[in-house]
From TrEMBL:
SMART domains: Aamy. Pfam families: Alpha-amylase. Residues 25-294 form the Glycosyl hydrolase family 13 catalytic domain. InterPro entries: GH (IPR017853), GH13_cat_dom (IPR006047). GO terms for molecular function: alpha-amylase activity. It comes from the Bacteria. SUPFAM superfamilies: (Trans)glycosidases. It comes from Actinopolyspora alba. This is Alpha-glucosidase.
Length: 432
């Protein structure tokens, strides 16, 4: 089975569309409500595709939509038919906007060793590709580990090859999986999404170690790295990094680090707004516990639910003090988290032309090469460069201002102070 590795370079073979794609993970129920029932839906998402174009992402990644089995697990036939019609309208509209659509698919490792389970998974994938889906992330559970059934072997390459062979005509589809650091089933699909950065503290040494381990593992297994800084199983990074302005500054700095790395990046919806986690203040006997699910997306206006729904009572309450965090408010502010993300994603698309490199000069663009060269850095800091002449990223997690690496400033998460990088900030530079 053909593997894409870091040795595959542009010009040698056509790289797959997902090679450096930026995914935007959406829980449909919490994104946008089109029918006023207080719950987000597919038509609501379709109505907001213009925002995703404006943001600059490549792929709409839908979570919680599909499970293993032929067809969607979405209720009685009439309801299923209506939802599938909305889904097909969504994929058509997304493709018209040059956006791809990917899905999470649940699968059990122990079941997938059985030919019947493999056939069922293949039928499920084909069911969704027939409806315009461009790729999948397999959420591989390990049921055997909790039932007394040995499961140390993970998903073997033979099983992967059998599934891939059955999908031979769908060779351009992305198939990735969410992996743990030592999970033996990693390396059998295109992309390994790893939670290491989503669990790392805001400390340069820990962040560098997480990046280095993942890059080494992907080289070993011949897969593309997939970077997550936030997700459903971890608090939003603004909260995780200390909350308030401190947490937001650190989250903005980490966005520059993540988007400078080679591989696939996944942005959790609301991450680009710098949203914090929401405290469940009403839960008895659980004071201060974090809500297990995200709350609805704040779009516009001055009071909840901020344009998410025409129904003032949404499926989950939106904080009353989020007026300045809405999409509308942040689009009007050049200093907002949303404006920073838009600049980052725009630079990833246009930096080669702006920097004067590309096909005309025979050199790679700032974000094209896959090697990472680490620089020496002051205590509490890290710095790396993409390939030869690629973008340079520096991060300061210390409490002191530090000098910048040599290079011309391209973008900073916070303004420089006397030409130096402040604490809790990051920069992109180009080589002089």
């Amino acid at each position: 089975m053909r593997r894409w590795t870091e040795q595959d370079a542009p010009g040698q073979e056509r790289l797959p569309w997902w090679w450096d794609a930026t995914h935007y993970a959406i829980d449909v129920r919490l994104f946008a409500d089109s029918d006023g029932d207080g719950v987000g839906d597919l038509d609501g998402l379709r109505n907001r595709l213009g925002y995703l174009e404006l943001l600059g992402i490549d792929t709409v990644w839908l979570t919680g939509v599909a499970m293993t089995g032929v067809g969607p697990n979405i209720g009685e036939p009439r309801q299923a038919a209506a939802i599938l019609e909305s889904f097909e309208h969504l994929t058509t509209a997304a493709h018209d906007c040059d956006l791809r659509v990917t899905l999470d698919i649940g699968a059990d490792i122990s079941d997938l060793r059985q030919p019947r389970a493999q056939q069922e998974l293949v039928r499920t994938l084909r069911f969704w590709t027939d409806r315009g889906v461009d790729g999948f992330r397999l959420a591989l559970s390990r049921r055997g580990a909790y039932s007394g059934v040995p499961d140390a072997e993970g998903l073997d390459p033979e099983t992967s090859r059998a599934i891939r062979a059955a999908l031979a005509e769908e060779s351009d589809r992305l198939i990735g999986s969410l992996v743990e650091e030592q999970q033996s089933s990693r390396g059998v699909w295109d992309v390994d999404f790893n939670r290491s950065l989503a669990e790392a503290e805001f400390e340069a040494g820990e962040i560098r170690e997480a990046i280095s381990k993942e890059l080494a593992a992907c080289r070993e297994f011949g897969t593309r790295p997939g970077w997550l800084v936030s997700g459903r199983s971890t608090p939003r990074q603004v909260t995780r990094y200390g909350g308030g302005e401190l947490g937001r500054a650190r989250a903005q700095a980490m966005s520059l680090v993540t988007l400078a790395l080679p591989g696939v990046v996944c942005i959790d919806s609301g991450e680009e707004l710098g949203l914090p986690e929401v405290i469940d203040s009403d839960a008895e006997n659980r004071p201060g516990e974090l809500v297990g699910a995200r709350v609805p997306m704040p779009w516009e206006g001055n009071e909840p639910p901020y344009g998410f729904s025409a129904n003032p009572t949404s499926c989950l309450p939106v904080p009353a003090d989020w007026r300045e965090l809405t999409v509308e408010a942040q689009l009007e502010s050049a200093d907002s988290t949303l404006s920073l993300y838009r600049q980052e994603l725009e630079l990833k698309r246009t930096a080669p032309a702006e920097a004067g490199v590309g096909e005309s000069s025979g050199t790679a663009g700032l974000f094209d090469e896959d090697t990472v060269e680490w620089y020496g850095a002051p205590s509490g800091c890290l710095a790396f460069r993409r390939g030869v002449g690629g973008v340079i990223c520096a991060l300061n997690t210390s409490e002191q201002r530090v000098p910048l690496p040599p290079g011309e400033l391209l973008l900073s998460s916070t303004p420089l102070v006397d030409g130096q990088l402040p604490p809790n900030s990051a920069v992109w530079l180009t080589a002089n």
